[in-house]
Structure of Glutamate--tRNA ligase:
Amino acid sequence: MDDELRERIEREAEKHALLNAVKHDSDADVGAIMGPLMGENPDFRQHGGEIPGLIGPVVAEVNRLSAGEKRERLEELAPEELAEMEAEEEADDSLLPDLPNAEDYDEVRMRAAPNPNGPWHLGHARMPAVIGTYKEMYDGSFIVRFDDTDPETKRPDLTAYDAILDDIDYLGFEPDDVIRASDRVETYYDYARELIEMGGAYTCSCSGEAFSNLKNDGKPCPHRDKDSETTREEFEDMVAGEYSSGEMVLRVKTDIEHKNPALRDWVAFRMIDTPHPREEAADYRAWPMLDFQSGVDDHLTGVTHIIRGIDLQDSAKRQQFVYDYFDWDYPEVVHWGHVQVDAYDVKMSTSSIKELIDAGEVEGWDDPRVPTIKSLRRRGIRGQAIVDAMVGLGTSTSNVDLSMSTVYANNRDLVDDETDRYFLVRDGEEFAVEGGPDSAHPPLHPSFEERGTRDIPVGDSVRLESGDVPAEGERVWLKGFGAVRREGDSLVATGDDLDVVREGDVAVIHWVPTDGVSVRMRTMDGDVTGVAEPDFGDVPEDELVQFERVGFVRVDDRGDDETVVYFAHK
């Protein structure tokens, strides 16, 4: 290495160390800058073994600078790249709009309120992604409240509580508090009793059809004006389980002539005969409806801002009646549209996915064909990739479409530098190889030559994918091995140098020895089988790798006969 090249390497290393340090507001790291340094300067790669030692002192010198000195030095060396980085940071910061009136609160407190009737599908990730990001923006609090007070129509799944918390952890967030509404039924009873004493609620034994007709006509229920003592007695009978399902409800007294019939004297409590699956709540029969339960809990837990679907605008209006009775201030509300996800044939619905699992059409909640968080996790998608995609949708009141290609691009940025490369041949034909070396030694990662190489023995024969098989007499470049020409059932080494590739005369293809590692790759379109190079057999389970020209996969299971991997994306 001559002095001119050495000086250029040191200069480029200083620039990348400064970019790394300023971007992350921390010390630079030799390993972190090797990828971009090599990627931007391909001619450095032949000196990959020497470069870490050469740039170490440069990085150490950068780390001795203060934050302000680092930025000033970067502005001298690479003003355009600094400006571009700052513009990207500003764009990232503006993806989510400011929360309304956030400055009026000592602390921003937000909640995700899942119904634990099953593990989360991908659409559910939007709420914790956005709330978690707002928590970081405002140094606020993130509450998870399980709205599990419907043991019948949206019956809780006992495994879903922990599964949902596990999904939130995978997305990169830790709740400040976790609440189960079914633990708080006595609290809801107490507030119902207070509301009754205020004359703000009454018990009603009308059939659903009879009350609906009265409501739609703007006429009061005949039970509306009963005295508070009678209402209180009948409510206590509800609490004691004296009524069967459908016999008695407790209604919040609103405005029977309100222009929106949905707000007229809505149900706060109803009787449910089906016991709750949680043992701690199994004895309750009088259950609060979601609008009452959620409204009370939002106040008691100090929630300052609520995000909910645009289709739930009536919820805030119903709850406002309760808040007015108690003289509470209602939280700020942000409404957003629904999110739809492309790329899946399966409907993004917990009940629909459960039906497919029960029918044996898919294997479980982490089947690669279903749009669940568990599925993406098993495929090797990082939670941050999902969060970045969801945050990028903003909080528009319009329905929005999430392209999975966005999630994949985010994930590629997160994992590309750390994933080693291997060859996988999914189908194809076998050929004997004549001439050339006994083995090939391509790098584990093209941008990090210091990681070393793989050893791929040629053996008696090799496999090529069907689409790569050359015509008779045609040349191809076996990656890591060299140029070969097809002659019948053999591939004969030609001795050509890499210029034939640079000139565009010869295609570069991947290959494996025929006695490589048997692989079953689980994909969204079904299973694909193939053979991987021998060194892939040493990759541990749960590791993410890239099969060159195929895509990123997560190693799932090392069986005796084959290795199972889950396809993430190209």
